[in-house]
Amino acid sequence: MNAHQWLELALYIGALVLVTKPLGLYVNRVLNPGGRTWLDPVLRPLERLTYWVFRVDPAEEQGWKQYAFATLLFSLVSLLFTYAILRLQQYLPLNPQKFGALSEHLAFNTAASFTTNTNWQSYGGESTMSYFSQMVALTIHNFFSAAVGIAVAAALVRGIARHTATTIGNFWVDVTRITYYLLLPVCVILALFFVSQGMIQNFKPYTTAKLIEPQTISVQKTGANGKPVVDARGNPVMEEQTQDAQTIVQGPMASQVAIKMLGTNGGGYTNANAAHPFENPTPFSNFFQMLALLCIGSALTYHLGRETKNQKHGWAVWSAMFAMFLAGVLVCWWAEAKGNSIHQQLGVAAAGGNMEGKEVRFGIFDSALFATVTTDASCGAVNSMHDSFTPLGGLVPLFNIQTGEVIFGGVGAGLYGMLIFVILAVFIAGLMVGRTPEYLGKKIEAYDVKMVLLAFVILAFIILGFTAWASVSDWGKSSLANQGPHGLSEILYAYTSGAGNNGSAFAGLNANTPWYDTTLGIDMLLGRFGMIVPLLALAGSLARKKIIPAGAGTFPVTGLTFVVLLIGTVLLVGALTFLPALTLGPVVEHFLMLKGSLF
Amino acid sequence: MPFACLNEIMLDVIYIGIAVAFFAAFLLYARGCEKL
Predict the structure, then answer these.
(1) A384-A382-A458 Cα angle (round to 5)
(2) In this complex, which of A65, A108, A533 lies closest to B15 when CB atoms are compared?
(3) 3-state per-residue secondary structure call for A410-462
(4) Closest C-alpha to A179, from A141, A136, A153
(5) How many helices and strands, by DSSP H and E, does chain B display?
(6) Which of A101, A264, A332, A444 could cross-link to A396 by cystine, CB 3.0-4.6 Å?
């Protein structure tokens, strides 16, 4: 924990603060269909053409049920579109490596993963996906799933801001405007910046380099049909191979990485993700990838304040997110810098702390910061292997996801997730003072609390349910690389990452089996839409309410008391739901490590 | 038609069916939320 690392942390925080207001103002204009932006002369005709082609009346608003139906229909159609491309990959263009079709379970898992903004990957991108699949099946989803998340957050904010209204916006207009005015322009700039840093962007076939010393490696056996061979349990069958050449990946990487980070998607072009030198070439690219991850989530809190005409409330929500972000960074950084006590006793520890599973170019601080940012942001991108973190260092990313990813969170998903905590906090405060809870002039009634609780319960139910099932099943245990509490952490992380639509992997778990692919695919769908539906119902309910003037018993939703209560609510709900499972995983592993046992 | 090909088509139908069934369930879930 040296001075230049503290300086980088200060620079990162400063950049995040600086970008919040201007981007928030821009987002506010994009999310208001009448809002004017400096891109109007170029994009307005394209926007109008899109409405004309798809027969959308931009002036016609939707009630929450229509909005939910449009969200679900759009997501289902795009999921089936991706599934079809992945299954027909060998017949489609831009496939110089002649990759075959994905298996049915992997195609389902990947389609569900990218539709839900999870971007969990049970495959290595560079050895599985053609350029066409990367660009059309996956990158398009990176835009659309991000746009859907922001659209749902915008609808919920409208529900909070409006009164005696029956509509919460138009889904098709929201998705169109977010994609055209926000995601595309920023991604063009980001992609060009990444290319300037050395990231590749081409359609060349992979390059082959001859090795000076041939290597013997263990790889998954490929059958006569060109598909990976698995045994009766679905586990990969391995074989020894001697390699005298190295294949160097090529392809349209910068364009995918830009939206992968900005849209908090995280699906890596390569298996090593942001640890790969092509996918994250320089310290600058690393810094701006991390900034891209949190900037829209941060800006949306400004949009909240602007829409509800209570900017202090927007900053209060931002402050709660920021406090939890900072605490996570410091704990993870401290744990990794402290290192593994057993390695130190054996004299094999790196000088700066725990370097296992970390890219030497980034070191401990940039790995810990990236791990915290990516799991705060519901992004699956990683520049180090979280499985190799110390138990407490690995607990931070795991707990970040288990909070519901509300610490800035996924684009849109972070804000709508945090807003349900806000309503719960206001409800708890109301109970404490014995008054009907109010939020920004609206009474929070039984129906609203039921919707909030539905959103919470669905997450807890699927994460803990699937983890328990996998932990006692042969299909679940047979994919583990580690036993004991670390094995439980690997399973818990996988289902937490899926349900939280994060997508980062702990590693150590072979998830490309029919059971894991299928259950994780279902886990992601339930985690995304099981939460979105009650939230849109909540938006509809809040929009219908009348505004009542604030009284002496109204709990203020600005200021330090509110921020502390909000953080307390997030931590309490997370702890009550997941502490028993965390105790059996990373916590017990930490104490066993201190006693001398490693897993 | 070879058995492997038939098997693949059957699995495709199953996985597409799972996706459609879940989205149908989400629609019912929305109706349930309305009536709660």
Answers:
(1) 125
(2) A108
(3) CCCHHHHHHHHHHHHHHHHHHHHHCCCCEECCEECCHHHHHHHHHHHHHHHHH
(4) A141
(5) 1, 0
(6) A332
A153-206 pLDDT, tens per residue? 999 999 999 999 999 999 999 999 999 999 999 999 999 999 999 999 999 999
For residue A46, report the phi and psi dihedrals to the nearest 5 degrees.
Answer: -65, -40
3-state class of A367 per DSSP? helix
Predicted pLDDT of residue B1: 59
Report CB contact under 8 Å: A522, B22.
yes
Beta-sheet pairing, A442-443 with A438-439: antiparallel
Span B3-19, mean pLDDT?
Answer: 91
Task: Give the closest of A73, A87, A537 to B33, CB-based.
Answer: A537
Nearest to A142 by CA among A56, A262, A284: A262
Which one-letter amino acid corresponds to residue A572? L
| Mean pLDDT on A441-451 | 93
Distance from CA of A562 to the nearest CA of B (A): 29
Query: What percent of chain A clears pLDDT 70, i.e. is strictly above it?
Result: 99
Q: Is the pLDDT of residue A499 over 80?
A: yes
Span A271-292, average pLDDT: 95
Candidate from B19, B33, B34 with C-beta closest to A79: B19
**Nearest neighbour of A76 by CB, restricted to B15, B20, B29:** B20
Report the predicted TM-score, pTM, of the whole model to 2 decimal places. Answer: 0.91
Beta carbons of B19 and A108 less than 8 Å apart:
yes
Amino acid A3: pLDDT: 87
Q: In this model, does residue B17 exceed pLDDT 90?
A: yes
Q: Does the CB of B33 have a partner CB in chain A at under 8 Å? A: yes
Distance from CA of A313 to the nearest CA of B (A): 28
Put simply, the answer to whether B30 touches A65 (Cβ < 8 Å) is: yes
Interface membership of B6 toward A (CB under 8 Å): no
Q: Which of A67, A71, A75, A76 to mutate to test the interface with B (most CBs of B within 10 A)?
A: A76
Give me the phi and psi of A378, to 5 degrees please.
55, 35
Which residue shows structure tokens 């292997």?
Answer: A385
> Helix, strand, coil % (nearest 5) of chain A?
65, 5, 30
* B15/A83 Cβ within 8 A: yes
What integer pLDDT is reported at residue A226 of this predicted model? Answer: 66
CA–CA gap between residue A357 and residue A573 (Å, rounded)? 31
SS3 content of chain B, % helix, strand, coil (to 5): 90, 0, 10
Is residue A491 within 8 Å of A582, Cβ to Cβ? Answer: no
pLDDT for position A243: 86
Q: Do A108 and B22 touch (CB under 8 A)?
A: no
Among candidates A87, A108, A447 on the partner chain, residue whose Cβ is nearest the Cβ of B18:
A108
Set of chain A residues whose Cβ sits within 8 Å of the Cβ of B25: none
Tokens representing residue A86 in the block: 């992945």
Phi first, then psi: give them for residue A238, nearest 5 degrees: -100, 155
CA distance A458 to A452: 10
Query: Which residues are paired to A509 by β-bridges?
Result: A480
Mutate to test the interface with B, among A64, A533, A538 (most CBs of B within 10 A): A533
Dist CA A306 CA A299 (whole Å): 11
Cβ-Cβ pairs closer than 8 A, A with B, add up to 62
